[in-house]
């Protein structure tokens, strides 16, 4: 009688193999995430199951027979419409916020469990930013324990030491424009956050010396295309003026959310003023020489000089 009671436990110990695999990281809206089964047996039946963080109960996502190709979807999870079998693995398309948790592959009495953590990156205030403003970058890990992380500059160098993933930057400039990366410690995973900074690039030659009567190009380059910004920022005014005058020499106008263009001018000294949409180049050509500082792009009550 005693032997009959312990036999099922002995059989379970012999045939059930349980293995932990890697921790996987993903960002929201990742196109495809593939989780390998991790076990390989002659049994054609495979089941993929899911449990939420903090729960011990698994729910069937789907099961398949690798020989016949027959697949059955489970009930009660939010994953059915975005998952499918890929070989023996599980493919999740368009990763969503609630997808973090534990995924288990069952095949022939063998089990492999994966943990999925989501990395969420954001900026406060959100991009685009105005030069000289302040921003805080956030990098959060959802779905389990939070490893240390750090931010990398767009050129790949460290912007901070390992920590909790928050970084404050004061006085942003065109040098902060680009793809920032949050790196996870002890893992090759990086999450990218694109930061757009609208400002005027510093002049490489702030003083121009020319002869009277010569034609001169006054350079003025923006750090990013205006057309990418105006859906988020409100244009107030901007243009060129002579330093000693209160009136604009040449002014800008908004074309809605598509960009900026020059207002018409009848001044003979200004050449080649196009009415087409402007992107990053606000330079002008002059026949008559005076002092022309690159003036103001005023967006959302901030002046960019």
From TrEMBL:
Pfam families recorded: V-set
Ig-like domain mapped to chain residues: 35-105, 131-194
PROSITE patterns according to UniProt: IG_LIKE
Keywords: Signal
Signal peptide positions on this chain: 1-21
Source organism superkingdom: Eukaryota
Name of the protein this chain belongs to: Ig-like domain-containing protein
Organism this protein belongs to: Lepisosteus oculatus
